DNA sequence: GCGTAAGCGGATGCGAGGCATCCGCTTATT
DNA sequence: AATAAGCGGATGCCTCGCATCCGCTTACGC
């Protein structure tokens, strides 16, 4: 099999040499792995070392960390999209929402860099993709609300924040109790159900436009 | 008014000179403030600068950051104790739990260093104090459960984790929406109520003994 | 007042850690 | 075989936090 001629993401000038292209993919794979374990705090040197190749090789292919992260954006994002599509196929809106929140939380618990990566790269295209995902979630939420299965005062923009909350538990309990986050995800999901005993949420949710800047902040 | 003769926390050798003692208190005040804003990431140099005194002065009084943090432990802890006492006086167990969780979350939202400071200093005395607080919370939880007002599968050890979750939102939305954490605190509290629609929590909570190490981990 | 010990300030040195380059060697490609 | 492309990783630069050190100031006891 011959190289596809697709060196970089677009069909740019000259194709990479075979070994270079192989390395490029390898770097992406390893970077995804390293960022999953340690978040974006990991350095390109870490990635290179783990990949068993020289730092120079990494820096030649990706001028800096941002470039690498951007290249990673797509593959991290499709995970969520697929999760959303799977969830949207649920029989009820409530199931859809539950399924999505739970799967997104799980993805984030497993991948410490997920939110960080996705919140970066504010290009037009990524913005459009994010909007698309947001719309899907919104649809699930609205559907569930029409069924009366989740409280009327929550909103699609709440979902990422739920994930942030779960992520906090996942990160700090990772070593001691790797599955602890599930417990609190369930608690949160139960907080979404409507009915007697709920107190109207006191403040407004985040505007979708504010989400980006909020999610970028490292929770330190 | 003359110095009390209490130079350090215990009645050790010679009392500090008046200006030194004044500075010592000032350092503690300022440190509390700085850590509240920026967490334990703030440096002693930051503290000194903010206090308008030299770095040397800080380091003479507190050999390193740990010493300063330990000196701060008490005053941070009593805040929580008082909150707990106030909450415990609530008419119902449910109110007590709600009141405590909410007040603790608020304290943490306002004080970014709160959990970090409290989770440090693992001396006998602090351990005893923590145990005391834990017992109070436990009592509230049990009381609320006997009333049937909160679900039977939560436990006192869950409460700190709830605070951690809220803290994550508070920290990353701090600039954009300083009160956003309330929204999610309310959601969590609603997740605590019992009744139809709750799904039994799937995993065990943290053992109280594990809490310490989990809470120490910086959520990065 | 005055002598002196205690305190003060902050420039400074040290070390850690991340980022990115550079250049002599290797290898794919034609 | 010639050559351009790629490779490796030691290396230098820089930022940042921690803590010390020493010449000057100040409170305090007599």
Detail the topology: elements first, then pairings:
Two copies of one chain form a homodimer.
Chain A: H1 18-38, H2 44-51, H3 55-61, H4 65-88, H5 93-110, H6 114-119, H7 124-146, H8 158-173, H9 180-192, H10 208-216
Helix pairs in contact in A: 1-2, 2-3, 4-5, 4-7, 5-7, 5-8, 5-9, 8-9
The first copy, chain A, binds a DNA duplex (30 and 30 nucleotides) through helix 1, helix 2 and helix 3.
Please outline what is shown here.
The structure is a homodimer of 220-residue chains. With 220 residues, the first copy, chain A, is mostly helical.
Overview of this protein structure:
Two copies of one chain form a homodimer. By secondary structure, the first copy, chain A, is mainly α. Chain A folds into two domains: 18-63, Arc Repressor Mutant, subunit A (Orthogonal Bundle); 72-195 and 205-216, Tetracycline Repressor, domain 2. Chain A contains ten helices and no strands. The first copy, chain A, has helices at residues 18-38, 44-51, 55-61, 65-88, 93-110, 114-119, 124-146, 158-173, 180-192, 208-216. The longest helix of chain A is centred in the middle third of the chain and has 24 residues, at 65-88. The interface between A and B is large, with 51 and 51 residues. Chain A binds a DNA duplex (30 and 30 nucleotides) through helix 1, helix 2 and helix 3.
CATH homologous superfamily title of the largest domain in chain A? Tetracycline Repressor, domain 2
> What structural category arises from helix and sheet content of chain A?
mainly alpha
The proportion of residues in beta strands of chain A is under 5%
Low-confidence stretches of chain A: 1-11
Radius of gyration of chain A: 20 Å
The number of strands of chain A is 0
Largest sheet composition of chain A: none
Shape annotation of chain A: elongated
For this structure, the CATH topology of the largest domain in chain A is Tetracycline Repressor, domain 2
CATH architectural label of the largest domain in chain A: Orthogonal Bundle
The residue fraction in helices of chain A comes out at: 55-70%
Instruction: Kindly report the oligomeric state of this protein.
Output: homodimer
The chain-level mean pLDDT of chain A equals 92
Number of domains of chain A: 2
In the CATH hierarchy, what is the class of the largest domain in chain A? Mainly Alpha
Distance between the termini of chain A: 47 Å
Task: Find the biggest chain interface.
Answer: A-B, 51 and 51 residues
């Amino acid at each position: 099999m011959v190289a596809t001629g697709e060196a970089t993401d677009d069909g740019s000038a000259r194709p990479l040499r075979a070994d270079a292209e192989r390395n490029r993919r390898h770097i992406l794979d390893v970077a995804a792995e390293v960022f999953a374990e340690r978040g974006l705090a990991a350095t390109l040197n870490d990635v290179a070392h783990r990949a068993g190749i020289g730092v120079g090789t990494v820096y030649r292919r990706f001028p800096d960390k941002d470039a690498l992260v951007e290249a990673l954006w797509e593959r991290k994002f499709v995970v969520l999209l697929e999760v959303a599509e799977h969830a949207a196929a649920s029989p009820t809106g409530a199931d859809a929402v539950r399924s999505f929140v739970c799967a997104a939380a799980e993805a984030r618990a497993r991948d410490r860099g997920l939110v960080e990566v996705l919140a970066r790269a504010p290009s037009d295209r990524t913005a459009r993709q994010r909007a698309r995902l947001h719309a899907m979630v919104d649809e699930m939420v609205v559907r569930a609300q029409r069924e009366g299965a989740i409280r009327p005062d929550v909103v699609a923009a709440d979902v990422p924040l739920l994930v942030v909350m779960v992520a906090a538990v996942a990160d700090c309990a990772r070593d001691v109790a790797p599955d602890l986050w599930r417990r609190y995800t369930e608690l949160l999901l139960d907080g979404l159900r409507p009915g007697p005993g709920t107190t109207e949420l006191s403040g407004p949710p985040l505007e979708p436009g504010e989400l980006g800047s909020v999610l970028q902040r490292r929770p330190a």
